[in-house]
Amino acid sequence: MVCTGCCATLDHIVTYLFKTLHQKSKKGTVDLETDALVKVMKHQPSILQQMLATVLNIIMFEDCRNQWSMSRPLLPLILLNNEYFGQLRQQIISQQAPDKQGAMAQWFDSLMEGIEPNLLTKNRDKFTQNLSVFRRDINDSLKGPVTSSGGGSGSEMMTS
Q1: Which one of 34, 45, 119, 129 is at 20 to 30 Å from 19 when CA atoms are compared?
Q2: CB-based contacts of 64: which residues, under 8 Å, 6+ apart?
Q3: Does the keyword Coiled coil apply (predicted)?
């Protein structure tokens, strides 16, 4: 219950940021210099980047029982941090065994397949569906045959 509430709050914050940064107001443009939250996030982009990495890590490598709730803030976090998401994606792929890197790259491609840079309900629902498949594929891969590569557990794959 707490996790669901935290995800809902985070979703409201990042949705507000996305809409503020990407939509015009009735007057033309939003005054981004007077919005305190926007100013903080522009001066400290690592805050949103860490949130993105944390939510993605939980969804990918932990027993996430609130997948729908976790998916809601993830899409705006990705859209707000698209370049960082690309870096994170490459980092995760490169940390996989060579024989699993191609599959991981395909799963990331499929995660964003058909996703547009907006937060419309239809787009969010499509992302949530893609995320379910993404998570299932990752979990199936982690349950696969274990090889002794000297690496750690899956949850250690995304440390910043």
Answers
A1: 129
A2: 58, 70, 135
A3: no
Question: What is the structure's pLDDT at 65?
Answer: 78
Residues ≥6 apart with Cβ < 8 Å to 134: 107, 108, 110, 111
Question: Once rounded to an integer, what is the mean pLDDT over residues 56-83?
Answer: 90
C-alpha distances in angstroms, 87 versus 77, 94, 130, 160? Answer: 14, 11, 20, 12
Q: What is the pLDDT of residue 41?
A: 83
Mean pLDDT (the chain) is 84
